[in-house]
Predict the structure of MGF factor.
Amino acid sequence: VLLLGTMLWAPWLVLHGAPLAELSGDQDFQLFLHKNLEFTRKIKGDVAVLQRIVCDTFQLCKEEELLLVRQDLAVVQAPLEQCHRRTFQAEACFSQIRDGLRAYHGSLAAVLELLPGHSGLVETLQLDAANLSSNIQQQMEDLGLATVTYPAEGLGPLPAFSSRFHHQVGGFFILANFQRFLETAYRALRHLARL
């Protein structure tokens, strides 16, 4: 195990921003990617269910209708610019996915307050986000990848909503942003699985 760990880690001493081509044939890494692609797909499905619940419960269904209200809210999108193909760097992308999942885990508390009748689903989503973040952190450590922590850019404590309506719209945008984040993360993991 120690020898395998050393062999997996050694290429990264030289290839700091390179894609993971050297590891693309590694069975453990491929297994990690495929399991977490499925996990990400499951989380996306759960977010979609919550989005439908918000649509049905509060008639908040279309983002373009809420853009003016959004300007008054402190709901931000977790960054994933390091996971786009032109700027792709494995360590940076994994770090941003991990940090974003942690941020959404926290912001889902606002959705939990909004949908107390669906607390089981929201809590499962929080647990899944935490587990996926931990999986990525563990894989980064196992591969000897440098872990980078990006500034949270406004993803700190939950926003204080000034009204019930703002809370509802805030919950809508937390879920919409999380869904976009997961789609980008999914594409990045799929890209790595195809290398």
The domain at 27-146+156-193 is CATH 1.20.1250.10 (Growth Hormone; Chain: A;).
